[in-house]
């Protein structure tokens, strides 16, 4: 029997339906950066999601530099990161909604008193806090339990680097063996798995014709089980605690 004491939730498209809004908001900035550096490629929110889902903006810019052999000076990088944060937060404050069914599960988990609930995201802390506050989920994550790969670490990084999960475990005083993470992306699943944590995959926000493909992607990345809907979570957690997965 696995004694699970801690649940670590990814934020974007796991707790809140933010990916589409966020990518829409940052596509214009990415295109400006490309144009200024003579890169012909242009992106829409949709094409950015396909190429960069699970990465934070800093990670996207790092990938862009490598893929198109361009250079973004450190000062410019910081400027762009802040510009993107502002644009995305404005968009999220306007239109953000929770993932269907997740609030019911958070309420049930909190009422049980059995688990420490935490958020572990690649996105900037300011954005994560704005997201969970907008939809009223901040009431479930009390104290210093919200972590960001872009902000919380001494050296900013992005999933699939496991650094943010290892940092969260250290700060929370928990071991990987007593922890379950919930992730919707390949990079997030790899991040949690590489930190030694059992990861539950979630494909709810993906288009119906993409769900089966993403389920396989998350399993290949190490997810121990994949759920399509948050209503499945109680039985998933029960299986993990029983040691059957």
TrEMBL record:
GO MF annotations, alphabetized: metal ion binding; phosphatase activity
Keyword annotations from UniProtKB, A to Z: Carbohydrate metabolism, Magnesium, Metal-binding
CDD domains, A to Z: HAD_BPGM-like
InterPro entries (alphabetical): Beta-PGM-like, HAD-like_sf, HAD-SF_hydro_IA, HAD_2, HAD_sf, PGP-like_dom2
Domain of life: Eukaryota
Gene3D superfamilies: HAD superfamily/HAD-like, Putative phosphatase, domain 2
Cofactor(s) this protein cannot do without: Mg(2+)
Keyword Ribonucleoprotein: no
Protein name as annotated: Phosphorylated carbohydrates phosphatase
Source organism: Clonostachys byssicola
Lineage: Eukaryota, Fungi, Dikarya, Ascomycota, Pezizomycotina
